[in-house]
Write a structure and sequence with these properties.
Number of strands: 13
Largest sheet: 5 strands, mixed
Distance between the termini: 37 Å
Radius of gyration: 17 Å
Strand content: 25-35%
Structural class: alpha+beta
Order of helices and strands: EEEEEHHEEHHEEEEEEH
Strand order of the largest sheet: 4-3-10-11-13
Helix content: 10-25%
Amino acid sequence: MDDLPSATTRVQISKSGPYRVSGNLPLDEQIIGTNGAGESVAWRHGRTFPVQQQYALCRCGRSSHKPFCDGTHARVGFDGAETASRAPYREQAKVIRGPTMTLTDAESLCASGRFCDPNGSVWNLVHMTERADREHFVRQTCDCPSGRLVAWNNVTGERLEPKYEPSISVVQDPANDCSGPLWLRGGVQLVGADGFAYELRNRMTLCRCGASKNKPFCDGTHVSIGFSDKR
């Protein structure tokens, strides 16, 4: 996305191996917080990991030292082939225009965070004009960790994005009793195993259960297989 600064932080995908992180990227844990109805409504901060200049994060889902790599990918014959589209976000996204806001939606990037669901869902909220509805719409799209959903102001053409410093979070999803993806924020440069530089985006989620069919991105499979880094 063209309004992000040039990235000095980097995640290098190794062929059928880990994500190799460089640039003193902070690493922490973010937990999907829910309301009484079980709806995703807020991010809660979990633990913070010690800062390291470089580190390797598990991509196969089998490490005994998660979220870090311990070399298990080589022993189990992990296939980490990158199958996701490399087209820019705007080329992948469907456009849904409302009276005051527009929603862009690149469905293949969905990581099952479910922040889109409350208050009637963002696909309905985009058509509403009441202030409360518009506020829900912007907040819920901004809470989408994968950046699948983006809100736009129809008057200014501005993309409404949360302000993030470059960082990585390990997502936990207690409502589904599972662990989620790696959440890259703030314009971290992702580089494929073949050297391809993926589009710089403010939000993206990377598979760490090893089972996504849209690698390197999360496709929500961690929920259906009950992936956990606690076991």
